[in-house]
Amino acid sequence: MVAMAGIDIKPAGWKLVEVGRIVVVQDGEHKGKLAAIVEIIDNKRVCCLYWILLSIFAKRCLQALVDGPAGQEGAVVPRHAIALSNIYLTPFVIPKMPRAAGTGPVKRLWEKHEIDQKWAESSWAKKREQQERRKNLTDFERFKIMRLKKQVRGTTFCANTERDNPSFALQDTDSFPGSLYETSLKLWLTLCLRRHDLRYRRSMLRSERRPSHSLMAERREKGARDTSAVEMRAVSVAWFQQFL
User: Fold this and answer.
1) CA dihedral in degrees (12, 13, 14, 16; nearest 10)?
2) How far is residue 108's CA from residue 100's CA, in Å, rounded to a whole number?
3) Which helix (H) or strand (E) segment is 46 a member of?
4) Which secondary structure element, helix H or strand E, spans residue 40, and what is its range?
5) pLDDT above 70: residue 179
6) CA distance 129 to 137
7) What is the DSSP letter of 8?
8) Is 244 helix (H, G, I), strand (E, B) or coil?
9) Which has more pLDDT, 76 or 151?
10) How far apart are CA 118 and CA 126, in angstroms?
């Protein structure tokens, strides 16, 4: 920070394209792998030294072989020119890296500044690992995650409701607060009862418009279901009221 005539000038927190900047390859053969910028070719291309990992996740970065033979899995890929549009800049930088440094110096600086460990502890790497795990889930595992999310949302809603309205006391139950569950059930049953009553009224209007012989013919076809609409409504109301 520089002070000039009472003005404080702070350096920008931007991630700059510079020698020593750690990047993540966005697409292509080495997608998701770490690399270090060792040289800037022009305003659109840089020269990177790829670190091929046995896994793209940082927790296995210690198994990377930076100087292994080319045919060995996990070996270092030779320097490669890559477009700036094909890389993501990370907040990690290897300071004072010489321009166009060779594989040996880059490897020593990489280990000295613990780039693998910093990447493993970053939220970026954890998020990528989480996304990869989600891609490999089975249908049943996705279903369990959905149920857990619903439980979390319900618990959060109950806590907020109790905080905003203290008179709305929550009861402790195994899975869901009792008072909120009862209120939700009453609301749902009331809506069902209103919907059932509306259907009953519509059915009565339709039956009044029909000739009596057609209505009796339909009831004879139904056989065991020859219960009148009034009796059905009475049974439904009695069943609903036991929950209200």
Assistant:
1) 90
2) 15
3) strand 45-50
4) strand 34-40
5) no
6) 13
7) E
8) coil
9) 151
10) 11
The encoded tokens of residue 70 equal 């080319």
The 8 Å CB, 24+ separation contacts for 178-183 are 180/154
Say if residue 154's pLDDT is above 80: no
- Report the C-alpha gap between 242 and 185 in whole angstroms: 12
CATH number of the structural domain 14-133: 2.30.30.30
**Higher pLDDT among residues 95 and 176, named by residue:** 95
Q: What are 91's two structure tokens?
A: 């907040």
Q: Is 139 helix (H, G, I), strand (E, B) or coil?
A: helix
Token look-up 């477009």 returns 83
- In the chain, where the domains are located: 14-133, 138-169, 175-241
43: Cβ contacts below 8 Å, ≥ 6 apart: none
Tokens (6 digits) for 69: 């033979």
CA distance 84 to 207: 74
Q: Which amino acid is at 2?
A: V
Question: Which residues contact residue 85 at a Cβ distance below 8 angstroms, ignoring those fewer than 6 apart?
Answer: 26, 44
Token code pair at residue 7: 């003005």
Which secondary-structure segment (H or E) carries 118? helix 115-121
Q: CA nearest 84: which of 27, 25, 30, 44?
A: 44
Return d(Cα 30, Cα 50) in angstroms, integer: 8
Q: Which is it for the CA torsion 165, 167, 171, 177, positive or negative?
A: negative
Residue 151, SS3 per DSSP: helix
Q: Tell me the pLDDT tens digit for each residue of 45-61.
A: 666 555 443 333 333 33
